[in-house]
Amino acid sequence: MFNFFGLGLDYKPILHKQLFEMLYFSQGAFTHTDLYEMPVYLRTFYYKELSKQLKHEKDAMDKSKKGQSSGQPNIPSWAKSSNK
Amino acid sequence: MSNKVTEDYPGKSLSTEELKAKVTAESNIESVKKSKFPTEIIDLPSKGRLYPPGSSLSSGRVEMKYMTAKEEDILTSSNLIQKGIVIDTLLRALIISNGEGKSVNYGDLCIGDKNAIMVAARILGYGADYPVEMSCPSCQNKQKSSIDLASLENKVIDESLLDNGPIYDFYLPASKRDLTFKILTHNDEKKIEEEAKQMKKKNFGGNGVTYELTSRLKHMIQSVDGAADSKTIKDFVENEFLSRDSLAFRKHIEAMSPDVDMGIFFECESCGHEEPSIQMPMNVQFFWPGA
Q1: A14-23, A74-83, B11-20, B38-47 — which is least confidently predicted?
Q2: The predicted structure's pLDDT at residue B29
Q3: ipTM of the complex
Q4: Which of A3, A6, A19 sits opposite B80 (nearest CB)?
Q5: Backbone phi, then psi, for B265, in 5-degree steps?
Q6: Are strands B39-43 and B221-224 parallel, antiparallel or unpaired?
Q7: Hey, are the CB atoms on A3 and B282 less than 8 Å from each other?
Q8: Rounded Cα distance, B86 and B90, in Å
Q9: What letters, b where the CB count within 10 A reaches 16 and e where it falls short, cover B51-68?
Q10: Which has the closest alpha carbon to B39: B102, B120, B108?
Q11: Can you give the pLDDT at residue B33?
């Protein structure tokens, strides 16, 4: 038999932090039981997909904020011409 | 909320108590309680030939569930790690049946079959790619590489030696005596470990000799020249078993013990040294890739 004696306590918080993040950010898509009894390869897949989705949403939000950061309202061209 | 639930049960308006009772009853249905998990059938290196015909393991296969967070919690249990039973507890949790619906007695498994189940658990849980760091036996240079666990094959053994099991014959070449023996199981290994602990306690502060080898031989050998009593076997192993015979016997056991071949090809990037079969290292990445 292999000379391997387990992972140690350090790994437990990492595991449960991942479960918590999936519970918290999936907006109710998963329950704790779902995640706890889900095959590891599936859980890893969903975790990666969820991360990608959150990153995508964050990027979109940043982009939208950047557009607004000039402080100038978007004035339609017809309104600009009528002001002259 | 109550309105929503009542919509799910059309035809009558239910009180909160009635709804509670109905939902509780439905959630207690066996099919709901026993959530169906995906499983895989794993072929054992022994092909079931080491086990007596009545044993569920004679099917040569086990049905395993995929690893989940529940099993990862087992791997991180300090209590189990301290007791040295973490892998056994993990494998017990993963084995469902013998592939034909019969339960498996974990204690009857031989070491080679346990190794195969452990590798299968890793592949099912985290995939076959296993990153390792290996030292060159020649120049000690450390290099990173990746092992494809799915490419590991069963050890090549002389299968004809497994006929007429699970008790086998062996003729000692030097002392010309007849032995019968069996291949050790998980239960035997536990007994040997326990005996080794007891011996260590007795010899504490003594000569420092460990008696694991003789203890293993005593558990393997079932009879000597037809005598199967434990006193004869003990006397034989301790006083009459010649080193030449012991070596021949151990070589014979090695040649017939089914296992997963953990030897992998190694080529040093630094000095070019090649090793056709180096023992696969075991590290934390085995059950925690990306750690």
Answers
A1: B11-20
A2: 45
A3: 0.71
A4: A6
A5: -75, 135
A6: unpaired
A7: yes
A8: 6
A9: beeebbbbbbbbbbbbbb
A10: B120
A11: 42
